[in-house]
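User: tokens in, sequence out, please.
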């Protein structure tokens, strides 16, 4: 098998920096691709947490006197799993308190255009061979950019090749809603030729559209599920870029995300009160008792619904506060972990106050707690209005916490609805529903409670879910096949 060298460019990757699912995917891809003859090097911005992982004396493999107006160095190291890591060390851009994209108050950094255009420009130069080793440029066969923060990389490859004529490019859309649009005066500062200011270039609604630039320039576009690849061709899900997606046609591919089975495995998860597998489901009860205690829920054999999410309109969380009374009224309980919209946080806290012992709310995020919730909950509610892939439903399947999901994007691709035909065939793994309204969500919760009241049926659903294979094996091969097609 021919070995390929791929440069993965992302704004975050586990375990070094994470704000969402993008980090999980960027962190998992190198290991997923290695068995398929692909050596993936990850390029990350030099945030403080990333620099700390390199140690005190990182190896400098290149330096820029001026990268879009600021000095920068390229540092080499390895990820904790041993795969190659490159870090763009530009203190003026990345060494600051706050998050990767915004300050401590949640306000976007004013220079995000420069921070992520610089990342893209550096990536294009690295792909083109700016690193010299033993007198020879060390280029890459494929540059793989993730979301708008890395989307300028394919544009720089296209307009300023820098010796990278043989390097192909891929961009993955993790969420079309975030596009990286900036005012038109930014164009004069990102060092692209005037020809790039065009409808098929970086210009978008009179400004610089970074995601749009990447979608126009990359050799291939991927989304993180097949259904989302179809959905973004429509005005409902395309967020204004549906015309471009349709125009790119066969260049658009849907490749489902996977999960790290070493991290998300109830049989070996150290965070749990009691490890278990699909063969030892009786041990799961200890995790349910522990979850009840942790969230102050009354002890009961009735179902516990869990929610682990951002509290936003996209995730359908605006409907949940009104449904709480119905959920509790038919014998359910709820444990929620999340943060986001302040009004939604207040409404959920008020709901918990109305139902002491039946509803428990934790505002914030806690990785270990999310594992314990998947192990102790009976069902996980995911009423998203759109969901490019989703990972929490995959974790739920792995832990026998049955997903109750809106029929959209990756949720539709990964959960088999417990309808009569699927129940008769013995293949159902959860509950799907159409629409995100009070009636839709309340009906799905009712159906879930009814299924839970049938122990033999519920156990079969749990075993089906836990036997599902959503590891990275198939998805890793799909990415490797795409790279080889592009470079053939």
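Assistant: Sequence out:
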């Amino acid at each position: 098998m021919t070995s390929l060298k791929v440069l993965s460019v992302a704004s975050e990757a586990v375990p070094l920096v994470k704000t969402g699912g993008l980090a999980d995917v960027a962190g998992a891809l190198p290991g997923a691709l290695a068995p398929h003859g692909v050596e993936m090097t990850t390029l990350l911005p030099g945030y403080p947490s990333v620099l700390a992982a390199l140690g005190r004396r990182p190896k400098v493999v290149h330096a820029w006197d001026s990268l879009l107006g600021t000095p920068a160095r390229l540092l080499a190291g390895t990820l904790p799993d041993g795969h190659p890591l490159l870090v763009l060390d530009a203190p003026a851009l990345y060494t600051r308190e706050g998050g990767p994209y915004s300050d401590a108050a949640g306000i976007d950094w004013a220079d995000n255009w420069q921070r992520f255009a610089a990342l893209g420009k550096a990536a294009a130069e690295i792909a083109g061979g700016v690193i010299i080793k033993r007198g020879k440029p060390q280029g890459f066969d494929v540059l793989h950019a993730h979301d708008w923060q890395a989307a300028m990389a394919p544009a720089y490859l296209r307009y300023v090749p820098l010796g990278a004529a043989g390097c192909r490019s891929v961009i993955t859309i993790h969420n079309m809603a975030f596009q990286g649009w900036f005012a038109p005066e930014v164009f004069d500062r990102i060092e692209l030729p005037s020809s790039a200011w065009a409808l098929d270039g970086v210009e978008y609604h009179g400004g610089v559209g970074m995601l749009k630039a990447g979608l126009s320039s990359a050799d291939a576009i991927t989304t993180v599920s097949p259904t989302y690849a179809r959905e973004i061709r429509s005005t409902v899900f395309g967020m204004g870029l549906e015309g471009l997606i349709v125009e790119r046609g066969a260049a658009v591919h849907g490749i489902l995300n996977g999960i790290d089975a070493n991290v998300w495995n109830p049989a070996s998860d150290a965070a749990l009160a009691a490890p278990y597998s699909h063969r030892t489901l009786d041990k799961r009860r200890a995790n349910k008792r522990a979850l009840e205690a942790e969230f102050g829920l009354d002890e009961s054999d009735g179902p516990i619904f869990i929610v682990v999410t951002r509290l936003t309109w996209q995730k359908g969380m605006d409907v949940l506060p009104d449904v709480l009374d119905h959920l509790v009224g038919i014998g359910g309980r709820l444990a929620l972990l999340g943060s986001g919209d302040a009004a939604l946080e207040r409404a959920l806290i008020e709901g918990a106050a109305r139902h002491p012992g039946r509803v428990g709310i934790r505002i914030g995020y806690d990785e270990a707690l999310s594992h314990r919730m998947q192990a102790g909950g009976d069902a996980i509610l995911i009423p998203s209005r759109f969901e490019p892939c989703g990972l929490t439903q995959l974790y739920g399947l792995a832990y026998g916490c049955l997903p109750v999901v809106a029929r959209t994007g990756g949720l539709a691709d990964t959960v088999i609805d417990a309808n009569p035909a699927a129940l008769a065939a013995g293949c159902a793994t959860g509950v799907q529903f159409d629409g995100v309204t009070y009636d839709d969500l309340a009906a799905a919760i009712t159906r879930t409670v009814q299924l839970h009241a049938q122990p033999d049926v519920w156990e079969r659903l749990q075993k089906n879910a836990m036997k599902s294979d959503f590891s990275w094996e198939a998805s890793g091969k799909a990415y490797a096949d795409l790279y080889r097609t592009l470079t053939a």
